[in-house]
Amino acid sequence: MFENKYQTQTIDFANPKAVKALNTALLFAHYDIKFWEFPDTNLCPPIPGRVDYLHHLADLLKQLGINKNITVLDIGTGASCIYPILGNAEYNWSFVGTDIDEKSLQYAQEIVSKNKLENAVTLRHQINSSNIFKGVLETSDRYSAAICNPPFYKSEAEALAATTRKLKGLNKDNIPVVRNFSGVHNELWYQGGEKAFIHNYLYESSLFKNQCFWFTTLVSKKDLVRGMQVSLKKLGATQVKVINMGQGHKISRIVAWTFLTKQE
User: Fold this and answer.
1) Measured between alpha carbons, how far is 196 from 205 in angstroms, rounded to an integer?
2) With contact defined as beta carbons under 8 Å apart, do 212 and 137 qualify?
3) Are 246 and 252 in contact (CB under 8 A)?
4) What end-to-end distance do the CA atoms of the chain give, in Å?
5) How confident is the model at residue 129, as a pLDDT?
6) What pLDDT does 141 receive?
7) DSSP-assigned letters across all residues of the chain
């Protein structure tokens, strides 16, 4: 930490190690997470944004009287295992986290074990990177909700271009381009980008419609929402909700849908 020209204590937000240290401290101070270590190359999630998603999900479940024995499926849990550890700390929810990267799951498992969360968090390896639910969902599984923070970019070049814009906004455009939240390829980009990933998610959710109450995802590009609503109507969704979310200058949204009837 250092004092800037406005006499405010702050950190260098263009420095990945500083950003990671800040988020580790937030987890320790506010959520009693004592161990949170993973490679610096992996994505470091911003804690306020992640917990905000969980707060909105809790509100959504509460509206329908779902407030106990909640189990959440976290698609793409990552090396940081962030949603399961936050969701358990804040709401005492149980989680199943999936990921296509075995190495990430090993680091996530260490976080689970060292925070003594083995009874609350289970991790599963998605062997086929083209699938989202197929291969990891068991026929007996029932979830209160599924959550997902999809890869936003189509390629490494697109991710680097976004970082360059961010550094310019931080008046750091004279330094080498390094993502301040880091991230490896499967965390950041997907063939066809966010749109392709989300539409694959929508389609697969319709194949497991009775196994999850609310399917949800973060959506960074507002333009995608209309197409999602059209697709979900065709797939037979009975309810679709768009929840606006914002922290600081960043504006995003959660799209939630269910295929269940009122009776179900």
Assistant:
1) 14
2) no
3) yes
4) 52
5) 86
6) 97
7) -EE-TTS-EE--TT-HHHHHHHHHHHHHHHH--------TTS----HHHHHHHHHHHHHHHHHTT--SS-EEEEET-TTTTHHHHHHHHHH--EEEEEES-HHHHHHHHHHHHHTT-TTTEEEEE---TT-SSTTT--TT--EEEEEE----BSSHHHHHHHHHHHHHHTT-TTS----TT---HHHHB-TTHHHHHHHHHHHHHHHTTTSEEEEEEEES-TTHHHHHHHHHHHHT-SEEEEEEEEETTEEEEEEEEE---S--
* Rounded Cα gap, residues 50 and 254, in angstroms: 12
Per-residue tokens: 72: 């959440």
Q: Which residues of the chain have pLDDT under 70?
A: 152-192
Using CA atoms, how far apart are residues 125 and 99, in angstroms rounded to an integer? 5
Which residue is associated with the tokens 């989202």? 132
Of 4, 41, 5, 13, residue with least CA distance to 175? 13
For residue 69, give the amino acid letter.
N
Q: What is the pLDDT of residue 151?
A: 80
**Per residue in 3-61, pLDDT tens?**
999 999 999 988 889 999 999 999 999 999 999 999 988 889 999 999 999 999 999 99
Three-class DSSP labels, 31-99: HCCCCCCCCCCCCCCCHHHHHHHHHHHHHHHHHCCCCCCCEEEEECCCCCCHHHHHHHHHHCCEEEEEE
CA distances from 6 to 2, 9, 20, 169 (A): 11, 9, 24, 18
